[in-house]
Amino acid sequence: MNETFNIQRLYRVVATETFAFRRYYLFYVIFAAAYAASDILINRTGFHPGVFAGLGIFLIIISPFMLYNDVFHKIKGVNYTMLPASNLEKWIAFWFQNVIVVPLIIGLLWLILWGLEYFLFGRPIDIHIGKEEWSTYLIGILGIQGIAMVGTLSFRRLKWLKTLGAIFVLQVASLLIGRLLMYQFDLKSFIIEIQAANLIPDSSSWLIDYIKIVAYIIFPFGLWLVSFFKLQEQEL
Question: Buried b / exposed e across 163-179, counting CB within 10 Å, b at 16+?
């Protein structure tokens, strides 16, 4: 592509993918309806939207694997490779479907279940979650989904399985490195001394805030950036 970004091209890619993914979006609706029907048959007291929220979060996290499982397949992925769009436009469309469209659909279905429970059973809509909790949940969900996005654009086959394997390897490596640093530099004694000197939480609050900021930058923003570069690698 001669141009890196064109809003009309991006719109066409998003429209094309939205139409192509219609069966998955229909699946979300059918899934919510099946959940509501089974729950009312079993409990006969309501739809329990809180339980559906957990299932919906799981669907949001795995949405990259569902929607883009075949994008780099030698046969099934040909249409994606031939899309008249730049890599940036493809990635924005990829991000838009997973981060905007899917959560909106799941969130709407969740609210519909709350509304049905209110109108059919008279239960008030009771959603007591603070602003900080909302932001924490949102960052956590998007962070975990970001890992799935990186895995989707990193592997051509067995995406979810290889992603889980990579996470396991990273966890083991982090544990080994952490243990090595702990014993090599005697960090355990250092931490005990800090705790004994009552430096926690006052003196360490800045460190905790710093760690949170770094974590928020990496999860999900850093992972989104990594997924873009992974798309670049696969398209070469």
Answer: beeeeeeeeeeeeeeee
Would you say the C-alpha torsion 57, 59, 62, 64 has a positive or negative sign? Answer: negative
3 state SS of 123: coil
Please report the pLDDT score of residue 59 as a whole number.
95
Q: Are 142 and 221 in contact (CB under 8 A)?
A: no
**pTM to 2 decimals?**
0.83
Helices and strands in the chain, H and E counts: 11, 0
Cα Rg of the chain (Å, integer): 22
Give the model confidence (pLDDT) of 90-147 as tens digits: 999 999 999 999 999 999 999 998 888 888 877 766 666 666 777 788 888 999 999 9
How far is it, in rounded angstroms, from Cα 76 to Cα 88? 21
Q: Are 208 and 201 in contact (CB under 8 A)?
A: yes
**The two structure tokens encoding residue 170:** 């990273």
Q: How many CA atoms lie within 13 A of 131 on its CB side?
A: 0
Asked if residues 106 and 28 have their Cβ atoms less than 8 Å apart, the reply is: yes
Q: Is 171 helix (H, G, I), strand (E, B) or coil?
A: helix
Spatial distance between the Cα atoms of 166 and 234, rounded to a whole number of angstroms: 18
